[in-house]
Predict the structure of DNA-3-methyladenine glycosylase I.
Amino acid sequence: MSRTFTAADGQPRCAWAASAPDFLRYHDEEWGYPVGDDIRLFEKVCLESFQSGLSWRTILDKRENFRTAFAGFDFNQMADFGAADVDRLLQDKGIIRHRGKIEAVISNAARAQELVAEAGSLAAFFWSYEPKPDNLPEPQTASTSPDSVALSKALKKRGWKFVGPTTVFAFMQAMGLINDHACGCICRQKADAARAAFTVPQMKPAA
């Protein structure tokens, strides 16, 4: 089965980008390009947690609603959310109203603060799990990897929730920790160039 399709501009893209109208722009402009911003990284962890058991199209369609509901995914603000905020979010028809996931991402906000204190930034911690080239599966053939398993375990050890290996692998794909654009996709080379120009955040020295 082909892992690419020919888009309207005549150029090949990852096949999944043809499955919904908004996917092509997301694929071309966001997916697989390296991210070092803590808020964007935390947002993606949260959205991948909400996606568990659902389609990414559902989440992408509601992304702006999620941003509004969760204070732009500023984890310093979210860490202060309490029972009243959970009740508010459970009434918000613009998001996924799943109590367990809502409470999980609020809890994860406090864990994110702790991780920043530990590592210096979320970006430094997440990027410390960037796979070595020899550890990468063939593009778009896997839903987990040894590195996503390791990162999942590290997060769970620190109290994070809804961060299983598959969720973490999807996060790593999207945030550019790996380049999983299909061979032949025009964005694969662009993502490689962006990764080459990206300065990987470094963990702060141990005290």
Summary: The chain has one domain: 13-197.
